[in-house]
Amino acid sequence: MGSNNKIKFKGQLDRYFRLQVFVGILWLIACVISYSFDLRTGIFFTVFLVLYVVLMAVTFFTSSPKIAQQMVEFGAEYSQVQREMLKELEVPYGLLDNDGTIMWANNKFSELVEKDKVKHKDITSIFPEIGKTDIDVTRGDKEFKIKHEGKSIKIILKRFALKEAFDNSEFVDVPTGKTYFISIYMFDETRIDRL
C-alpha cells in the first residue's frame, strides 16, 4: 500500500500526536545534557527515553486504527441522527435531482402531498402546477406560490452544487457542469391567505 492510502489525522488529534513527538525530542535533549554531567544519570535518562519511545510507538500503532474506527462510527451515528431529525422536521422538505425527480422526502412532505410514496417521482407529476422551468435553479434559488388541491403552498427551491460540496474530498470527484441537487421546502399558507 502506498502512503496515499494511510489515514492522516488533522486538527487537535494531529497536535496531540505531534506533542508526543515533541516530548520525546525534549527527553532526547535531556539525555544528551545528562551525559555531560554524569554517566549514570545519562544512562538513567536513556533508559526512560527508550521506554517512553517504545510506549508511545505501541500506543500510536495500536490506538490509531481504533481512533479512526471510533471517528467513523461517530460520523455514521451523527449522520443517522441528522437524517432522523430531517425526517421528523416539521417543515415539508425534500431533495430533488437536477431534473426534478424526488430523491428523498421527509414525513411532512408526504403528509402535505397526501401520498405515502413520493421517492423517484417527478415533482411535476405530484404538482402539475409546477413546470419544468420552475425547477430550473441554474441561475439561482427560487421562491413561488402555487394552488394545489385547495391549498396555498409556498415553495422554496435552493440549489445545492455537488462540485462545491465535494471540492476538498479525497474520495469523490464530481465533474463540473449540471451536477447539483435541489432542496425543496414547502409551507402551507392556506390559513395565512384566508386572513
What's this model, at a glance?
This protein is 50% helix and 18% strand.
Based on the model shown, name its key terms:
195 residues; alpha+beta; Beta-Lactamase; 2 domains; five-stranded antiparallel sheet; 50% helix; 18% strand; rod-shaped
What report would you give on this structure?
With 195 residues, the chain is an alpha+beta fold. The protein folds into 2 domains: 6-81; 89-194, PAS domain (Beta-Lactamase). It is built from 6 helices and 5 strands, in the order ααββααββαβα. A 5-stranded antiparallel beta sheet has the order 2-1-5-4-3.
| Percent helix range | 40-55%
Number of E-type strands: 5
- SS summary, helix count: 6
* Oligomeric state: single chain
Shape: rod-shaped
* Whole-number mean pLDDT: 79
CATH topology of the largest domain: Beta-Lactamase
Poorly predicted runs are none
The largest pleated sheet is described as: 5 strands, antiparallel
Order of helices and strands: HHEEHHEEHEH
Rg from Cα: 29 Å
What structural category do the secondary elements indicate? Answer: alpha+beta
Strand content: 15-25%
CATH architecture of the largest domain: 2-Layer Sandwich
